[in-house]
Design brief:
The chain is an alpha/beta fold. Helices cover 48% and strands 8% of the residues. It has helices at residues 23-36, 50-55, 62-66, 71-79, 101-110, 119-131, 143-154, 161-167, 184-191, 205-208, 215-226, 233-249, 269-280, 286-307, 323-329, 343-346, 348-354, 371-380, 398-412, 430-450, 456-474; strands spanning 41-43, 170-174, 177-178, 198-199, 202-203, 254-258, 310-315, 317-318, 337-338, 362-366, 386-388. Strand 10 (362-366), helix 18 and strand 11 form a beta-alpha-beta unit. The longest helix has 22 residues, at 286-307. It is globular, with a radius of gyration of 23 Å.
Length: 484
């Protein structure tokens, strides 16, 4: 089914969008938002390819810019039977797929109604209107005219990646990079003389996933980079410690770790060595991997105490749940599904080792909303090293962000949270996501003011904290001189 429009409709973003229908709350929300809307964007966690800003070449065309890198878009279309091949994604076996980006864009536009009421529509409408100046709603009838309008603008200097970075008012953008990434793009950015701040984030997941098919190859690459054999778990930790320092030299402020279950434990050396040996023989099991990762997370916390890098932990997700999609298109194609998690038990070993260490900082993200009030807020409200990461993936939405504030603030307070990050690889969605977050937070705060829980002066301070100050503090980012 596709729902074609009956006629061209203007694309007009309401100035009070996402604010409460209650006039008192709406008025307060509007005033709070006006104070934060123009603040710089602090993006301490995301997945933009640094090559984009290193090369600063024109974006090729609208489809590969706005559709194919956005997992929210691809996931929704797949759920309604739209094949990924028809959107221009390339199967791993080279099977036939759409090679005409205009045709893929048309197919996307014919199904744009699927995103009504979702954050994707909020972000995409913002991008079309505020980034590209489109004044017509996207649908089957307007699709190709809008495609051509955007494609033309992408060839102008004002729409080069670095020009957009500056127009978006990005103070800092963190990418996410494997332990074996040589950081050549970051080095190129630093050497170019451009003043935009783009920093790497150290993500060693591939080196810790001992049961994965590519683990030994990753260990081989890591060994070659550090110039030392890796024949034991201890040697692996030493190699990762060296790489962390290299990342830090390139400006990194954080590490990132993704696990299915938030589990930490110290393993006896004999047990650890046995898992490593099985992994080197290609015989490690998924249980081995969970135990190995649980031990290594504590090691990564220890290294964070030593080198000062903030530790991020993303847990509560079954990645690549759709095995057929994984086989056809590879990893990270939107088949991730939230699952239940136990942070109280799982993080006990790590937090008892380093949770109150003054040099340690741990930011915890989850897809399991049920843990917000029951586990995460009480944990962050006690351990001085712990901060709560903002709603992520399925929950970085209008209602999801509001639920997060409602379920965590009373126990953890605001300053035990990490503000907002966009967690996106879709570059042009960055300002859209931050704008949505600032509107939602302003509306939540306005409700507190209207009920006399906080006064307007405190709400103004809280709004600014949510927009930039908490992220700067959580990730230990330097405050620009002009903002001190």
């Amino acid at each position: 089914m596709s729902m074609h429009s009956s006629g061209t409709r203007p694309l007009e973003l309401h100035p009070d969008r996402y604010f409460d229908a209650d006039l008192l709350v709406r008025g307060i929300a509007r005033s709070l938002y006006e104070e934060t809307r123009s603040l710089p964007i602090v993006s301490p966690h995301g997945h933009v390819d640094p090559a984009l800003l290193a090369e600063n070449a024109p974006f090729p065309e609208p489809t590969t810019l706005l559709i194919t890198p956005d997992h929210y878009v691809v996931r929704m279309l797949h759920s309604q039977g739209v094949s990924l091949e028809s959107l221009g994604l390339t199967p791993t076996d080279g099977a036939p797929h759409e090679t005409n980006p205009r045709a893929a864009w048309q197919r996307f536009a014919e199904h744009y109604y699927l995103f009504l009421g979702t954050p994707s529509a909020a972000w995409l409408d913002y991008e079309l209107s505020e980034v590209f100046g489109v004044r017509t709603r996207l649908d089957a009838g307007s699709a190709l005219a809008i495609y051509d309008e955007i494609a033309e603008k992408l060839q102008s200097p004002e729409f080069l990646p670095r020009a957009l970075f500056e127009r978006f008012n990005v103070e800092v953008l963190a990418t996410t990079d494997a332990a074996t990434d040589l950081l050549a793009h970051h080095a190129r950015i630093a050497a170019s003389g451009w003043t935009g701040r783009v920093i790497p984030t150290f993500r060693p997941d591939r080196a810790l996933a001992v049961a994965s098919t590519g683990w030994r190859e990753e260990i081989g690459r890591l060994s070659s980079i550090v110039g030392a054999p890796i024949e034991s778990a201890g040697a692996l930790v030493a190699a990762l410690a060296a790489r962390r320092l290299t990342f830090k030299d390139h400006g990194a402020r954080a590490t990132d770790h993704g696990v299915r279950r938030p589990w930490t434990q110290r393993l006896p050396q004999q047990h650890l060595d046995a898992i490593f040996a099985r992994a080197m023989d290609g015989k490690a099991t998924t249980e081995d991997q969970e135990h190995f990762e649980g031990h290594m997370l504590i090691e990564m916390a220890r290294l964070s105490v030593d080198d000062g890098l903030v530790m991020q932990l993303h847990a509560g997700v079954w990645r690549d749940h759709d095995e057929s999609l994984l086989a056809r298109f590879g990893h990270s194609m939107g088949g991730d599904v939230p699952m239940a998690s136990d942070h109280v038990t799982g993080l006990h070993a790590l937090l008892n080792a380093y949770g109150n260490h003054p040099a340690f900082r741990l930011i915890v993200f989850t897809l399991d909303e049920s843990t917000y009030a029951r586990e995460l807020a009480p944990l962050a409200g006690h351990y001085s090293a712990m901060r709560l990461g903002p709603p992520w993936w399925f929950h970085d939405s209008i209602e999801g962000m509001t639920r997060f504030r409602q379920r965590t603030t009373e126990t953890a307070g605001l300053w035990n949270t990490a503000g907002f990050n966009d967690d996106t690889r879709a570059f042009c969605s960055i300002p859209a996501r931050h704008d949505l977050s600032r509107r939602v937070d302003a509306n939540w705060l306005a409700g507190l003011v209207a009920r006399h829980i906080v006064d307007l002066g405190d709400a103004r301070r809280m709004a600014r904290a949510l927009a930039i100050d908490l992220a700067r503090d959580a990730y230990r980012l330097p405050v620009p001189r002009h903002d001190k």
